[in-house]
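Re: [help] complex structure
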Amino acid sequence: MVASPQHEFETQDLLINVGPQHPSTHGVFRMVLTIDGEVVKDVVPYIGYLHRGAEKLCETMDFRQGSGFMDRTEYLAAHNAELSYVMAVEALAGLEVPERAQWIRMILCELNRLSSHFMFLGAFGIDVGVFGTPFIYAWREREAIIDLFEEISGDRMMYAYFRPGGLAWDVPLNFKERVREVLKSTRQGIKDFDELLTQNEIFRARTEGVGTISAEDAIDWGMSGPSIRASGVPLDVRREEPYLKYADVDWDVITGENGDVFDRYYCRLLEMRESVKIIEQCLERLESGIIVPDKMPRMLRAAPGEVYIRTEAPRGEYGIYMVSKGGNRPYRLKVRSACLSNLQALRQMSVDQYVADAILVLGSIDIVLSEVDR
Amino acid sequence: MRGIAKSLMVTLSTFARKPVTRDYPNYHRELPERDRAFPLLLWDKEVDEPFCTGCHACERACPVECMTVLMKDNPNHKSTGGNSSRRKIIDKFWIDYARCMRCNVCVEVCNFDAIAMNNTWQGHELSVHDRKDLVMDLQQLLSLSHGGGIKEWVPVVGQANEQ
Ligand code: SF4
Ligand code: SF4
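Output below.
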């Protein structure tokens, strides 16, 4: 039947529920899409399914216990999450971290960025619709890094390795050798992904111009990390407020131009090359020495006061706001989650896109729900 | 089209690479000595009793409160004609593996080096039908060390490490 001008078909908006148990939502996240045909008209995200009250729990835990617990708030980049926490404690307790511990922390954090970005590349490949291949390739590269973490800290995901003041124990004797070995496979892995996805015409056609967000909007929404850099804002905490030894090594802040899904993907890929560069320089400069301060108190007590420490985690600015009233545990702890802020822009990025592209947009901001909900 | 051809070249080239997968249940890779599975108690072979004195330090330090410790007078103490210098010894000990978050805190606070993280495959392959079976009692916690099945690892802290 052909619609004549007199008898226009009425269209009706349809609500579809994606999640909370949906493979493409990267965890327990639910969004309700209002769609008109194939086009998304509105997105309402629902978060909180993975809320475990980590901030409140940390108030009952002393500083040694808390560092292990911070892993659980950001399981794909646990070293980075621990780093923010221990740096906040160190600032309050006035601890000086030995050189060697700082270099090792930096190497591990960058390796963790690599493993987290590999996870992104694989999962993003699935979101785009290339099932299997990139995911398994990413897993292969990530496995090498995780094996290394296991040799160092003893655990594959929940490392509990950074301690206020330094590290839990020293790295194994063949540390440098092993890191170089892993970097070799990582470099090959990055090259593989570059050829597999970046230059692939189908992949580009699918991702370019989708989910665009301008630099101004990205700033307004409080985005951070690769998601804002893709819009052309050179915001990187490692450059703005260098912590650890980032001021002493040579690396570039990667920015994109268009702020679309492709740029967010490509920024991460290029950023991985920078991470490899940073780790190589760290290995050159890592010397033997102590890993915890000589005068480490048996029971760590923080001075009264408050501190906000921010670090650049793989997904953006991961901040810890800690209030202390003295004693061996925080009075109040607040985690500034990069993913939560990035997620706010989801609606703006996915409205007027196709349904399939909304999934792509969600994948491109690389959310980790445990970090969003905490 | 060139890009797609290149992508296919990548997938093709991986055929020539060595496989990285392992046939898991049939093949167990060697675990690093630092591997942390779940905590277990160590056996003092010299005196033939556990190292643990039941001092409650680990119980108090555990962030998830999954341990229960009860101590008793050591029947094997020197004053009663035994050969042990431990006045108190562990009577009952439970660790709920289902709640333990493998954070290593209990190992660090123990003053008697009586507890260690299991670094063998037995510590990882723990599937049971009922969660209650994951509450380990003293005998279960000691059995691996008693049988000599654990290779102990002593962490290096505060010591210059030559590279
Ligand atoms: S490893 Fe941590 S959670 Fe597990 S029993 Fe020891 S202190 Fe408790
Ligand atoms: S394991 Fe160590 S800390 Fe725990 S009760 Fe026994 S002796 Fe005390």
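Residues B 39, 62-64, 66-67, 95, 100-106 surround iron/sulfur cluster (ligand 1) (CB under 6 Å).
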